[in-house]
Amino acid sequence: MPFLSDTLSRVKPSPTIAVTNKARELKAAGKDVIGLGAGEPDFDTPQNIKDAAKAAIDAGETKYTAVDGIPPLKDAICAKLKRDNGLTYEPAQVSVGTGGKQILYNALMATLNPGDEVIIPAPYWVSYPDMVLLAGGTPVAVECGIENSFKMTAEQLEAAITPKTKWLIFNSPSNPTGAGYSWDELKGLTEVLMRHPHVWVMTDDMYEHLVYDVFEFCTPAQVEPGLYDRTLTCNGVSKAYAMTGWRIGYAAGPVELIAAMRKVQSQSTSNPCSVSQFAALEALNGPQDFLAPNNETFVRRRNLVVEMLNAAEGIACPTPEGAFYVYPSVAGCIGKTSAGGTVIADDEAFASALLEEEGVAVVFGAAFGLSPNFRVSYATSDEALKEACTRIQRFCAGLS
C-alpha cells in the first residue's frame, strides 16, 4: 500500500513560495537577483505594535489561550468590522487563526464533502484551489480576462453555479491582479447569489486597506445584507499592518460555522501564538495613521511599475485598484526566442528565462489560473523596481 495520502497527490506546492526560494538560492550562490515574487510589504511592523508584543511577553502572556482567539482580540475584531464595514458581529461569531490561510482552510475543511464545488474567479491566489482539493471539494475556476479588468461578471457567476456549488471564494482587491470590485460591480454578483440560496460566500478581504486613487473598498455582506447569514468575512493583519510573520488571520460568520471551524483548529494547531494575538489587538485598536503614507508609497511604486512595463515590447500592464501587485500580459512575447536561446512558449518559459538571463524573479501566470501573464509584487524599494523593470525591458527587447 502507498505510504503517502492519495489526497496529497491532488495538490502541488505553492508556486509563489517556490519562486521566492529559487531567488534566495540564486542570491546565496552569488547571482544578482531581484525578487518580485514575495507577497509581503517591505515596511517594518509599526513600533506601537511591536511594543505591545513586548509588553505581552513581560506580562507573562505566553501560555495557551482560547483555541480560536483571546476575548479582547475578538472584541476588537467585532469593533473593526462595525467601524470599517458596517457589519455587526458578536464574539461567538469570530474565529482567530494562524494567518488568513488557516482561516480559509478551516472553513473549507469544516464544510466540504466529496462532490461539493467551489467557484474561484481566475486569476486567483495560488492556494485557493489546492485548499479546496485538500478538503475534498472540487474547485471550479472561472476565467476573468484582461478585457474585463480581471473581474468576474454576474453572467459568468450565474453560468458557473450548479446544484453542487457550496462556496464562492471572493477576493477584492485581488492577489494576483490588484483588481478591486466597485460597489455596483459587487452588487451585480450579490444579486446572482441571492437567487441561489444554497451558495455561501467566503470573502478574502486581506487587502482591504491597500486601495488607491478614488477606489472605495466594500465587502459582500456589506453590499447585500441578505447574504449575512451565509457569508464568512475573512481578513487579517498581515498586509496592511506589515505583520506577515506574526501569522494572525480572522473571520466572522454564523455561529454554527465558527464552532465547526473551532473544532477543526482544536485538533490541528490549537490557539494562534499568544504574543501575536496581543500584537494584533494593538494593530486593530491602535493608531491607523501609518496606513495613508504607506499607501502613498505603494501608489508611487505602482505607477512606476505600470509605466515601465507598458514601455516593454510585447507587454500590456493594466493599472490595478489596490493590493501591491500588477498582472501584465505577455501575449506579445509568446512564440519568440530570448537572447539566451529560450523559446517563449508560455508565461512559465518567459518567467524562467527572465530569471536565468536577467536575474528578475516573477511568478508565471499559469500558477494563478490565467495565462499568458506574470505577477509582479511591487512591495519593494523604488530602486529595486526601477532596476528590475529596466531588466524586463531589456529582456523583451532581446526577443526575436
From TrEMBL:
Family named by the database record: Belongs to the class-I pyridoxal-phosphate-dependent aminotransferase family.
Quaternary structure and partners: Homodimer.
Organism listed in the record: Actibacterium mucosum KCTC 23349
GO BP terms, alphabetized: amino acid metabolic process
Gene3D superfamilies listed in its UniProt record: Aspartate Aminotransferase, domain 1, Type I PLP-dependent aspartate aminotransferase-like (Major domain)
Catalytic activity line of the entry: L-aspartate + 2-oxoglutarate = oxaloacetate + L-glutamate
Any GO MF annotation of the entry: L-aspartate:2-oxoglutarate aminotransferase activity
Name the UniProt record assigns to this protein: Aminotransferase
The keyword Transferase is annotated on this UniProt entry: yes
Cofactors named for this entry: pyridoxal 5'-phosphate
Superkingdom in the source lineage: Bacteria
EC number: 2.6.1.-
Record lineage: Bacteria, Pseudomonadati, Pseudomonadota, Alphaproteobacteria, Rhodobacterales
Keywords assigned: Aminotransferase, Pyridoxal phosphate, Transferase
Domain Aminotransferase class I/classII large: start-end pairs: 31-392
